Amino acid sequence: MLRGFYTAASGMIAQQRSQEALSNNIANMNTPGYKADQAAKRAFPELLIQQMSSKQIPASNGSNITSKKTIGSLNTGVYVQEMIPNFSQGDIRETSIKTDLAIVPGNVPDEDGALFFTVQNEDGEVRYTRNGNFTVDGQGFLVTGQGYYVLDDAGNPIETDGMEFIVDPDGTLQTADGQTIELGISYTDNVLDMVKEGNDLFNGEAAAVPEGTTFTVKQGFLEGSNVDAMQTMTDMMTAYRLFETNQRVLKAYDESMGKAVNDIGKLG
Fold first, then answer.
1. What is the pLDDT of residues 92-131, one digit of tens each?
2. Is residue 159 a part of any domain in this protein?
3. Residue-wise pLDDT tens digits, 209-233
4. Sequential DSSP letters for 99-154
5. Checking DSSP bridges between strand 185-188 and strand 207-208, what pairing results, if any?
6. Residue 212 within any structural domain of the chain
7. Entry pTM
8. Which single residue of 20, 35, 67, 260 has CA 20 to 30 Å from 209?
9. Residue-number span of the structural domain to which 158 is assigned
10. Where are the annotated coiled coils located (predicted)?
């Protein structure tokens, strides 16, 4: 019976974590470039139950021989192993703001490959993002909404010399004073290796765009979140009902344990 307590409780914890991820997705439904999280659940290791018995051999020394009979496997519950971002393309919407940029992938050689803007976080480390909601800071550098520098293809912060700059479809930025800068567009052949760090940043291994990969950078556009609001609300209701089901199972175990301790114990 105690094992049943743990199994039901693990189910409640797993659904609670799923609900948290779904709630976070809904909260970021309007965040540009946001990639929805999906909870990957798996079972705890199964136990193989065997019945052990012994049989006495009719011999002068009265020896016993042990035997095993397989009863079956027992699952000990479920848990959320990890949160896996969904890297599908979000809708591209026009904003007409010159500092807004969106990457529209064309031909990508790897099925799990993806393109990112390259930025620098507060610790000076290289990170990646699909949120092109940029702006120009007081020093004339192109930065993210959180103030992180947007990098060029050489890994240097991009100085735009003001708001009046043009970005060509191939990712070439032309400043007002005639300078030409290549945006730092990075590519990873496996997006599942990218880890979310918050503030729309991803950490992982990415490199220069390989030959044969095509894309378009659209100025005055943003990639929206890929959260499916209707599906997420449905998943939230499902997680809530599963949580309630495990809660009722846990309550039933608790009532049975109470009878075993308080009522059956009195008969003794």
1. 999 999 999 999 998 888 888 999 999 999 999 999 999 9
2. yes
3. 998 899 999 999 999 999 999 999 9
4. TBEEEEE---SSTT-EEEEEEE-TTS-EEEES--B-EE-TTSBEE-TTSPEEBBTT
5. antiparallel
6. yes
7. 0.78
8. 35
9. 97-219
10. none
